[in-house]
Amino acid sequence: MLRGPKPMGAGPTNKQVIKCGTLLKRAQGKSLIGRTNWKERYFVLQDGQLSYWDTTGSGVCKGVIQTSRITAVENVGDATFLKTHMFQIVHSSILYLKCYNEQERDEWVALLREECSNNELMHRTFHPGMFDGKHWSCCGMPSADIKGCEPAHNYSTEPAPGEREKAATPASSSVLTLQTAGNTTASSSAPLTALGVAVAAQ
Question: How many CB atoms lie within 10 A of CB 94?
Answer without folding.
Answer: 19
